[in-house]
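Revision sheet: structure tokens.
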Amino acid sequence: MKLSNIRLEVMQTIEKSLDELLTKYLKPIEENWQPSDLLPDSKEPGFFKKIEEIQALAKEMSYDLWAVLIGDTITEEALPTYESWLMDIEGIDQDNKNGWSKWVRTWTAEENRHGDLLNKYLYLSGRVNMREMEISTQYLLNDGVDLQTGRDPYRSFIYTSFQELATNISHRRVAALAKKTENNLLAKICGVIAADEARHANAYINFVKRILEIDPSELILAFEDMMKKRIVMPAHFLRESGGKIGDLFTHFSNAAQRMKVYTTYDYIDIMKSLLKEWNIENIAGINDSAEKAREYLMTLPKRFQRVAERIKIPKKQFEFKWIAVQNEGIKLADLGSI
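Predicted:
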């Protein structure tokens, strides 16, 4: 569907201030942390001792938490898919070296460090079947994503606002759980990634605020449409070797729910926070269709709350091929929660 002229005008208007937004929400490359800043240096004499410490602490973390950490890593490593999606949004010109294309590339460059760092940590941990994890990563890149935004910037920025908040919660919670087992290195790794996600969320939330100033009715209608479809996670097509597309995501999601890393209630809380951030309840000057959409949006958290209260999460852990249980000499049944 071709974008309306007003949408293109809105994108061009916001683009004029993107240099300012780049400075506010993204960091200069030379000042940014890099994966090597947080991992043991192989040139240092104490390198192998530090690896032993990483592997010893890895054994103290629960099975479900490892499943979540690996799934989060695979999601982060599928970054090329997300960049190609953002670059294809109408109003973003790939040939333009400034403005929107510069934003997407700079955002991608920051996000790319997350998968690099987590992948290296998992490799050093000695608790991961790296080949199986890599197969899942390749599948996720191969299978792509269907975020249900089309090429619409309004829907896309609503999605990224939601998703960046969700990844912030997930990484932040993994950091807190790692800290409980005194795995301070993993806690720090997930903490710095969570901080990036929070900054990026603020940027996309700001983009939506600017759209609301110019085209509030269409933005609210786009918000309603995205919430009716539900915000799907980027890893919703997740699978293992020999599996079918998407058949692993429920097991990954169940592990996250059991560990309370990311739950249905977090989904509801994000919805509430965005309704408040964008002041949806009080926006003036909208048309009748947007008014009906606003009424729907404002009642949605309570509806979801009732649904969430009826959801039962399976207690039984799924045996992921990613986790090298046999190498540890530990039976799956012996691996309890933190």
